[in-house]
């Protein structure tokens, strides 16, 4: 089972500095290999049409739809209370504490840092606490991961990836933001950067950031090619 990894972009067209499909396309060019479509306020027909537009710019099979309806695809990301739908290939779930899973493949844990997208939402877990809550479940760090330093800290704590919303949606140059976060996460994941896991200084990338060569992440496949029962994930 291939699960979301690296920089995973969550959509919010109301925050986007440019038309949403343009922002997502730029993020993909910067190295985002996965996108989670939110936009739950849209009607069904409009949301499904948006899903199809996004599938045209996102790598095949890498658009995940928030909610139990995959909108013509086969990957969903569920809230804490959404039912698990039948017949989908990939299932994620949003968690804020110890995951209680049945068939899910991965979780997001949030907020890892305080976030401007949801002010007052917290308290912030921090990367180490999030990792402890996840246990053996593959997890994405969500909330306030808006600098290279924080991206690296989440990788060092064992996150499979970072889920980013505001830093990409608001960015004047989403491609550069994602490239910077992708590089920082990938380097820390292989022990190159040596950054610590505290919330040290780090530049907020939403209004710009440092460049860097893109490293496009793929998915994570367990060593035996299957997810284990211990993680609560599916084979």
TrEMBL record:
Gene3D superfamilies assigned to the protein according to its UniProt record, in alphabetical order: Aldolase class I
Keywords on record: Thiamine biosynthesis
InterPro entries associated with the record: Aldolase_TIM, ThiamineP_synth_sf, ThiamineP_synth_TenI
GO biological process, one term: thiamine biosynthetic process
Biological pathway: Cofactor biosynthesis; thiamine diphosphate biosynthesis
Domain Thiamine phosphate synthase/TenI: 8-168
GO molecular function: thiamine-phosphate diphosphorylase activity
Source organism superkingdom: Bacteria
Keyword Translocase attributed: no
Biased composition regions of type Gly residues, renumbered to the chain: 205-217
Region (Disordered): 196-235
Any one Gene Ontology cellular component term annotated for this protein: cytoplasm
PANTHER family in the record: THIAMINE BIOSYNTHETIC BIFUNCTIONAL ENZYME, THIAMINE-PHOSPHATE PYROPHOSPHORYLASE
Function as written in the Swiss-Prot or TrEMBL entry: Condenses 4-methyl-5-(beta-hydroxyethyl)thiazole monophosphate (THZ-P) and 2-methyl-4-amino-5-hydroxymethyl pyrimidine pyrophosphate (HMP-PP) to form thiamine monophosphate (TMP).
Protein name in UniProt: Thiamine phosphate synthase/TenI domain-containing protein
């Amino acid at each position: 089972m291939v699960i979301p990894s690296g920089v995973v972009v969550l959509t919010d067209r109301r925050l986007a500095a440019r038309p949403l499909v343009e922002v997502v396309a730029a993020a993909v060019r910067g190295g985002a290999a996965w996108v989670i479509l939110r936009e739950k306020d849209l009607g069904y027909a409009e949301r499904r049409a948006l899903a199809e537009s996004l599938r045209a710019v996102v790598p095949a099979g890498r658009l995940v739809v928030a909610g139990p309806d995959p909108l013509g695809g086969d990957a969903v990301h569920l809230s804490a209370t959404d039912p698990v739908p039948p017949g989908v290939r990939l299932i994620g779930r949003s968690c804020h504490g110890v995951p209680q899973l049945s068939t899910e493949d991965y979780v997001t844990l949030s907020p890892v840092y305080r976030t401007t997208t949801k002010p007052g939402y917290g308290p912030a877990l921090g990367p180490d606490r999030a990792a402890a809550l996840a246990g053996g479940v593959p997890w994405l760090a969500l909330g306030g991961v808006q600098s290279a330093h924080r991206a690296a800290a989440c990788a060092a704590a064992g996150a499979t990836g970072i889920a980013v919303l505001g830093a990409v949606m608001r960015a004047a140059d989403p491609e550069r933001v994602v490239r910077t976060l992708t590089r920082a996460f990938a380097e820390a994941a292989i022990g190159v950067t040596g950054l610590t896991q505290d919330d040290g200084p780090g530049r907020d990338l939403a209004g710009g950031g440092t460049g860097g060569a893109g490293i496009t992440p793929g998915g994570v496949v367990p060593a035996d090619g299957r997810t284990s029962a211990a993680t609560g994930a599916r084979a």
